[in-house]
Every structure is written in structure tokens, then in C-alpha cells.
Amino acid sequence: ELDQGKATLMCLANKGFPSDWSLAWKVDGSSSSISSSWEESRSPGVLEKDGHYSWSSTLRLPADQWRKVGSVTCEATQGSQTPLSETLRRDQCSQS
């Protein structure tokens, strides 16, 4: 979402177990590409009625910096489990 000069990206993960999975962002394939001025917020695991957990993470950055990004990846990790990820290319968005 682009609003008031900022781009907001949200990552949602659900049907997970156990509760200690964490979500992290990568920009153009690297976590070091994330600027310290960008806002990142994460929710702890929320227990759903079916006994699984859900998580969310939000990344907010200035719109002019979003226009320089090629892709953004949300990566879910837990202990020694193989990380799960989903990548969004900026050109897939309706407003880029």
C-alpha cells in the first residue's frame, strides 16, 4: 500500500506450529539492504482455535525508496527448520 509518502508491506503467516517461528524481511535478497530508518513491526505468535499459530510483520519505508527496490522477501524461520519464504517483486504491485 502506498499512502502519505510511505509504502507499507505486510507479511501474514498462519497454520504454523510451534509458536516460536519468526518473520524477517529481505530486500533484493539481503537483510542488510534494510535501512535503519525503515519501520519494522512484528506480532508474536497468536494461537488460533484450530491449535495452530499465526504471525504478522509489517515493513514501512519511504515511497521514494520503495521505487528503488526490486523485490521484497518475507522469511519465516524456526530453529533448525528449513526457512519458508515468499517474495514480492515491485513490478507485481498495481502502484509502483
TrEMBL record:
Residue ranges occupied by any Ig-like domain in the UniProt entry: 1-85
PROSITE patterns reported in the protein's UniProt record: IG_LIKE
Compositional bias per record (Polar residues), positions renumbered to this chain: 74-85
Record's compositionally biased regions (Basic and acidic residues): 39-51, 87-96
InterPro entries, per the entry: Ig-like_dom (IPR007110), Ig-like_dom_sf (IPR036179), Ig-like_fold (IPR013783), Ig_C1-set (IPR003597), Immune_Resp_Modulators (IPR050380)
Chain spans, region Disordered: 31-51, 74-96
Record flagged with keyword Lyase: no
Pfam families xrefs: C1-set
UniProt keywords, alphabetically: Immunoglobulin domain
The protein, known as: Ig-like domain-containing protein
Organism encoding this protein: Sander lucioperca (Pike-perch)
Taxon lineage: Eukaryota, Metazoa, Chordata, Craniata, Vertebrata
